[in-house]
Amino acid sequence: MLSERRLQVLRAIVQDYVGTEEPVGSKALTERHNLGVSPATVRNDMAALEDEGFIAQPHTSAGRIPTDKGYRLFVDKLAGVKPMTAPERRAIQNFLEGAVDLDDVVARTVRLLAQLTRQVAVVQYPSLTRSTVRHVELLSMAPARAMLVLITDTGRVEQRMVDCPAPIGEATLADLRARLNSRVAGRRFTDVPSLVEDLPEGFDPEERGTVSTVLSTLLETLVEENEERLMIGGTANLTRFGHDFPLVIRPVLEALEEQVVLLKLLGEAKDPGVTVRIGHENAHEGLNSTSVVSVGYGSGGEAVAKLGVVGPTRMDYPGTMGAVRAVARYVGQILAES
Amino acid sequence: MLSERRLQVLRAIVQDYVGTEEPVGSKALTERHNLGVSPATVRNDMAALEDEGFIAQPHTSAGRIPTDKGYRLFVDKLAGVKPMTAPERRAIQNFLEGAVDLDDVVARTVRLLAQLTRQVAVVQYPSLTRSTVRHVELLSMAPARAMLVLITDTGRVEQRMVDCPAPIGEATLADLRARLNSRVAGRRFTDVPSLVEDLPEGFDPEERGTVSTVLSTLLETLVEENEERLMIGGTANLTRFGHDFPLVIRPVLEALEEQVVLLKLLGEAKDPGVTVRIGHENAHEGLNSTSVVSVGYGSGGEAVAKLGVVGPTRMDYPGTMGAVRAVARYVGQILAES
DNA sequence: TTTTGGCACTCTTCGCACGCGAGTGCCAGT
DNA sequence: ACTGGCACTCGCGTGCGAAGAGTGCCAAAA
């Protein structure tokens, strides 16, 4: 087990390294933090910490830098979440309240997160399994062509063209719309398939083809709606990665363009609070030199989506976690109001 | 005036520099291109080209690199557009044909462009002044709350909540929907305001407030719809910018996040064909070391939006222009079909 | 007049040696 | 268990010299 002071030394190393971006040595440590012991003692502690794998030295005779494992310990045991100051919280709230619709909320959230953390922000659109259908609309576009519009309780709208096997009359369409809505309005996505299963039976045989075409399109749309989208921003902050960044930045940019990767990344975090994944803890290897700080957010008490930031492992964890948590909280409020 | 051979020298310099990314000297030039003259002659020509401002040398006693003005001449007079090969064209077509809806078309186009040109791709969503309204839908959400859904001929759907001053009945809503559609369906965005101007007059006095609220929301939505959106991709290709890129890449990333900037950028290109803006020709100073190759595309003969790529001034102009033109052409086809 | 070969000159780049300084590890002493 | 001292290791910056690429200019040839 590591003594209390050794943990303090680790904490000091992380803090200094995050600040200076340079390997930190024993002497500098004792000067900047008053640990009450001499450099020699600190050296012993550092040697122990290195044995345990919490810190490492880039080359012999250079200072130490924290390893992923070191950051992990720091995050878990040595540092809390740094709450936002009152003015910051007000600024967040004000900025988010200016949003006019869902897209705008997400867009503003991304900007805000990127600005607060000076890192790359990722925000998932709210939706998914807990979503319910608010309304389904059917419009006739051409004799054998209809448009299906799906509106969800989170305010998202999805449309799809439906090519019918046979011409369809306005009356039938209106009838179908009415029946459809009476069954699925207010219901969860996941419940819809079983609710509409027997719907074609209520129609004339020659219309059933059309009805089931419409229904299967609806089901498809629901599934696609489940495949969540997300928005990213603040990629310019990637330039903060460090001097060696040309090699690091490329896989990160590639990963950020693969929405699938990001969604998986956010999805992995099951923790109810703020989740931190450090360096190699990220499954995607392009992100092995980054840390991801994420948290769920949602309108009610339930989390309906995730948001977070991607930055260098050498980041200000307490501050970032604080910002992410605060933003999630206020976005939740905004969503609940609208 | 510049002699024919001097232009050939400039062309050779541009080609070599684009290929090698290194300043090109007189000797290397005569070796790689058989100009039929000696290095000394080429040196004289280079001196003349430098006097005219087409090329420059980074330091004394290094090779020459083209200036923005040099690239400009190259693009205008010395190089044509390199057409895509037949297999490439087939690949483009196949890839785009897999798209399921408008978003997907745009997304695929971005990927395609980024891959073909190995640069950052920008695609504007089709829409704008020539767009027409396909359908307007009104849904009751709560007693005094309605949802307005706007569907355009390009397949885009926009929705907006409307808070009414007074409760509104289903019947009134249906009535309004019918009247609204009979007036605006099929009409251009720009014509809508005058078409609905006198609509409230057909309603009971106590309903007029609600009606005009709905109408003004509709007009707002149309305006916002006009503010076009765009999608970008291939940012990982920014790492191709060169060795010195840390400083260059940052303003570019910042510019790419400002959709307004990009829209202005694309909007500036009035040329009916492929437009190339080189280096300082770009108004936004973050993009002063990039070139933008763009072109309009559209479903019919008319261009409804733009697409293009952003890359280093040192780029393969003929190839890039060919790729951009080809993609625009096939996207137009796809849009026309759907 | 244009082209060419030659030549001197300018700079950048690279390798190398050197010294400095930060930092380490170890050990003996408190 | 902590501390001070000491020898050792490297990385990093500096200065110098050689190499090489490229230029500009000039006088001769076409």
Please provide a written account of the structure.
2 copies of one chain form a homodimer. With 338 residues, chain A is an alpha+beta fold. Chain A folds into 3 domains: 4-77, Winged helix-like DNA-binding domain superfamily/Winged helix DNA-binding domain (Arc Repressor Mutant, subunit A), CATH 1.10.10.10; 86-126 and 228-337, Beta-Lactamase (2-Layer Sandwich), CATH 3.30.450.40; 132-225, Enolase-like, domain 1, CATH 3.30.390. Chain A contains 12 helices and 10 strands. Chain A has helices spanning 4-20, 26-32, 39-52, 68-78, 86-97, 102-117, 170-184, 192-196, 205-226, 245-257, 259-268, 317-337, and strands at residues 55-56, 65-66, 120-124, 133-142, 145-152, 157-163, 230-233, 275-278, 290-297, 305-312. In chain A, the strands form 3 sheets. In chain A, strands 7-3-10-9-8 form a 5-stranded antiparallel β-sheet, with helices on both faces. A 3-stranded antiparallel β-sheet of chain A has the order 4-5-6. In chain A, a hairpin with a 4-residue loop joins strand 5 (145-152) and strand 6. In chain A, helix 1 (4-20) packs across helix 3 (39-52), helix 2 crosses helix 3 (39-52) and helix 6 packs antiparallel against helix 12. The longest helix of chain A is centred in the middle third of the chain and has 22 residues, at 205-226. Chain A is elongated and about 90 Å long. The interface between A and B is medium-sized, with 30 and 30 residues. Chain B binds a DNA duplex (30 and 30 nucleotides) through helix 2 and helix 3.
